[in-house]
Write a structure and sequence with these properties.
- The complex is a heterodimer.
- By secondary structure, chain A is mainly alpha-helical.
- Chain A is about 60% helix and about 0% strand.
- Chain A is extended, with a radius of gyration of 35 Å.
- Chain B is an all-alpha fold.
- Helices cover about 70% and strands about 0% of the residues of chain B.
- At the A-B interface, helix 1, helix 2, helix 6, helix 8 and helix 10 of A face helix 2, helix 3, helix 5, helix 6 and helix 8 of B.
């Protein structure tokens, strides 16, 4: 069934501006993908699952089963501890009945271990495809006689238990005990008012917001991570304090080396190092960043950034041209810019032929804002080539 | 351009389509080189599609892994009876939904634990110039999950309506309705972003 004719026209299938925007976005979405690394990770996952002999689905079922078992045990214990009106003895002939809280020895003896038959079949969920399916692991089946069950254990008779006080009395006693305990302790301070640091920044009080973030950052966990990261952004974007922003990010990296925001912090660090003129540090950290998932996504931009650092700060045109070549290969929206910049480096290095090729490639790209300048460069290079003996 | 990453293909070429059954059969038979070719062919499609569905870059790797683990695990069930690309898109839609659910849970926990709703924390490096992608992503974020999936599959992946309906497991009439609303919202969001910039 094709699209009904009374529907609005499809933007992508037309030649107007929106269609062009969607097509350009499509290219950008597809840029910076490292397929080879992704395949290695898939292989590692399959290999590690094969070595463990289990799959995520099998592990989930196991977890759910053990969780249910623990919950059932807790409910039984809770019920037994509140209903103390009969004494119960486990024996080989009698079925297990509700009993009082068992002694540690009894508890250890009666703790059930799920037998092999009860454990979810792990090998059954291993890949059904014969291509990467590991051979079904041979599991030793535990003979039933080795499984520890309450029936198999003979326990000494438990002494008769006293009938407990009614629950109401117990509740009153507990309440009185709690009150007495509370009276002995110093009064707890009321909780601190909620800190909304972002609102302070929005209200035009960036210094207050900075102090607020610093307070939160002195804590721990995700809250502190987020506060440090936000503090760095505030210093960079609002307070114009690049050094202070970098200091906050350095503190983040030191305190939370495996933090949730470590990749974003790494990106921000590179930008700040460039801004502060610390070229060598920026090059080193951007090289490390290129090996991370976020770095691979932004690889084209990082290579262009590195190329510009080599070109402008270090005057290393060979290294710059190499970085621009890498960015050019990755394509995307910076592909044309990388081609142009590579051309300028080659031209400066005296390789006119290669520079001309780069400039010609640039002119063949769909978007070429520097077209006029590039044509002038081509004309100049061509003229020089003709004039040369 | 040598070595340039290709844009996502909106449909298989006739040559690729004719080679698909052979490639799949080789994969099913355990040919590792065939698995490699399969991954190389479909990974850019899956990854770009997941990005369009709004997956965060942090989740992209995991989601892509899960998609291909599923694919490798259950490819034997295909045996060329269905279009593997339809299945691939369906796996991606499922993984995107799971990632959204995980984010929803973690955001809820963060709201409970922190002083307020979590702000946008990921800073935008100044040197990023993926302008078109950002604009489209912003506009797409205004769509519901179902509208976004329909819009991306039809408008951006260029799939025919019947295939999109099959992937999303809905009727074609439902698809056209979702597309109608999605286009309106998308256009409005795009125009609004132009006004602000």
């Amino acid at each position: 069934m094709t699209e009904p004719s009374n529907r609005p026209p499809s933007p992508l299938r037309g030649e107007h501006e929106l269609g062009a925007l969607l097509r350009e976005a499509n290219e950008q979405y597809a840029a910076g993908l490292d397929e080879a690394s992704a395949y290695r990770r898939v292989q590692e996952q399959l290999t590690s699952r094969h070595a463990r002999g289990s799959t995520r689905f099998g592990a989930r079922r196991t977890t759910a089963f053990l969780g249910g078992l623990a919950l059932a045990g807790a409910l039984v214990w809770l019920k037994a501890s509140t209903k103390l009106d009969e004494s119960i003895v486990f024996g080989p002939e009698e079925p297990a009945r509700a009993r009082s809280a068992p002694s540690p020895d009894e508890q250890a003896l009666t703790e059930r271990v799920p037998s092999a038959e009860e454990a979810p079949s792990e090998a059954a969920t291993v890949s059904e495809s014969p291509a990467l399916a590991p051979p079904e692991p041979k599991r030793e089946s535990v003979p039933p006689s080795r499984a520890v069950t309450p029936r198999a254990v003979k326990l000494p008779e438990a002494p008769p238990l006293e009938v407990p006080a009614p629950e109401e009395t117990k509740t009153t006693e507990r309440a009185e005990a709690a009150e007495a305990e509370a009276a002995e302790q110093p009064k707890a301070e009321p909780p601190a008012p909620e800190l909304d640091c972002m609102q302070m920044a929005r209200d035009g009080a960036p210094r207050q917001a900075e102090s607020c973030f610093a307070t939160l950052a002195s804590g721990a966990g995700l809250r502190a991570e987020m506060a440090l990261h936000e503090m760095a952004r505030l210093r960079r974007d609002v307070l114009g304090d690049a050094r202070g922003a970098l200091a906050a990010l350095s503190e983040y990296r030191q305190r939370f080396p495996r933090g949730s925001l470590r990749h974003e912090v790494a990106l921000s660090r590179v930008e700040l190092l460039v801004r502060l003129g610390r070229t060598r540090d920026a090059l080193r950290e951007s090289e490390e960043l290129l090996t991370s998932p976020v770095g691979r996504v932004r690889a084209a931009e990082l290579h262009v950034l590195r190329g510009n650092m080599y070109r402008t700060a270090l005057s290393d045109l060979n290294a710059a041209a190499a970085e621009f070549a890498r960015a050019e290969r990755l394509g995307g929206p910076l592909g044309a810019e990388a081609t142009y910049l590579r051309g300028t480096c080659l031209e400066a290095l005296g390789d006119g032929r290669a520079a001309l090729e780069a400039y010609e490639r640039y002119l063949s790209t769909p978007r070429r804002p520097r077209a006029a300048e590039v044509r002038q460069r081509i004309a100049a290079l061509s003229g020089s080539a003709r004039a040369a003996p | 351009m040598d070595g340039m990453v290709r844009a996502v293909a909106s449909s298989l070429t006739e040559a690729e389509a004719s080679r698909q059954p052979t490639l799949l059969l080789q994969c099913i038979e355990g040919d590792r080189a065939a698995w490699r070719r399969l991954h190389r062919q479909y990974y850019p499609v899956a990854a770009a599609f997941l990005r369009k569905l709004g997956l965060d870059e942090r989740d992209l790797d995991d989601a892509c892994q899960d998609v291909f683990l599923q694919m490798f695990r259950y490819l034997a069930r295909f045996r060329g009876e269905a279009d593997p690309k339809t299945w691939l898109y369906r796996l991606c839609v499922t993984q995107a939904r799971r990632a959204r659910l995980r984010h929803s849970i973690s955001n809820t926990l963060a709201r409970l634990l922190l002083s307020g709703p979590p702000e946008t924390l990921v800073s935008a490096p100044g040197f990023c110039e993926r302008t078109a992608e950002r604009r489209i992503t912003l506009a797409l974020s205004r769509l519901s999950e179902k509208e976004r999936s329909a819009f991306v599959l039809y408008e951006m992946e260029g799939l025919p309506g019947k295939q999109v309906a099959e992937i999303l497991r809905c009727k074609e009439a439902t698809l056209w309705r979702r597309l109608h609303y999605a286009r309106q919202i998308f256009r409005d969001a795009l125009e609004a972003s132009e006004t602000l910039t």
